[in-house]
């Protein structure tokens, strides 16, 4: 990608002096876990990249947990990822990914639980592999973003939380986060570099597009057989399939063409052909438009709950229990999957983001 470049943050030593002091501070701690927090485009990733490279220069093995879901450096998008740096690197995208946790969407507001669990689990692994663990986070610091940061700090209990100075209305959110964190962790407030550049929603989308494209560049189609895998992240495929009579009843009552359906413990889930109408989501019947499933992101999950990699659902063969999926995973990697988890973004292999879904839609 030209212009913005697919790596927004790169290694530069042209950073405010307080980052140099931060490196000294981290080096004085015993196997520390350090979380970077700041608002959008405040320079979190640039600061983390600087600190990581300087620690590598001091001979450290640096674990990096990338939970900046919307603007990840360590691929793939829509996951929390762990990478280990032992050599200098120009940007996070150059780091070989080691392990992932599936979130399934590029914005965490409805996935706070998953994001906190993902960060906590990857930090636990990183602690056992690295001399120091650095955590990158989203720039989402108000509303649900504030809660997310607070919960991440509570769950992970980092040795140090590094905040980046904010301006305007976000300033108060950062101050409050420092207040609520200070009994749980050491905190430090860094200056905002005068070199930081902000990026429009369009630029951010273009960066994500390049990342999706890179991740799916060498994908091939596979058939996923749901009789051998668990399904999660959706109420589809749980319970028993609808009987012919039940299907007919739904068709007559709602004027739908029902493609497939299941009766779970407390409710029905129905996939219908008709699109263009508002999603029908009542407490006992969840109706999903077939179109919603097209190009939906899914994750392949291993027996420990980590994400082996992603796929794009191209054609669900619902009544056969088969999914036609595009994925860069090898047969060997796929054979380690015990579960398929449904995400909430529709995206093509060329990186076009078609839609974000709400959690309750599937
Ligand atoms: N010290 C610096 N020198 C030059 N450019 C910088 C510096 N710090 C930040 N930038 C630029 O400012 C922009 C935002 O920085 P960065 O990507 O590190 O912020 P962030 O807070 O991680 O962003 P996000 O909101 O995506 O999480 C980037 O384009 C980055 O290259």
UniProtKB/TrEMBL annotation:
SUPFAM superfamilies under this entry? Answer: P-loop containing nucleoside triphosphate hydrolases
Necessary cofactors: a divalent metal cation
Please give one Pfam family short name. CLP1_P
Q: Does the keyword Transport apply?
A: no
Superkingdom as given in the UniProt entry: Archaea
Task: Please provide the record's keywords in A-Z order.
Answer: ATP-binding, Hydrolase, Kinase, Nucleotide-binding, Transferase
What is catalysed by this protein?
a 5'-end dephospho-2'-deoxyribonucleoside-DNA + ATP = a 5'-end 5'-phospho-2'-deoxyribonucleoside-DNA + ADP + H(+); a 5'-end dephospho-ribonucleoside-RNA + ATP = a 5'-end 5'-phospho-ribonucleoside-RNA + ADP + H(+)
Q: What class of enzyme is it?
A: transferase
Q: Tell me the GO molecular function terms.
A: ATP binding; ATP-dependent polynucleotide 5'-hydroxyl-kinase activity; hydrolase activity
Reported EC number(s) for this entry are 2.7.1.78
Domain (Clp1 P-loop) spans 38-217
Alphabetical GO biological process terms: RNA processing
State its role: Polynucleotide kinase that can phosphorylate the 5'-hydroxyl groups of both single-stranded RNA (ssRNA) and single-stranded DNA (ssDNA). Exhibits a strong preference for ssRNA.
What is the protein name stated in its UniProt record?
polynucleotide 5'-hydroxyl-kinase
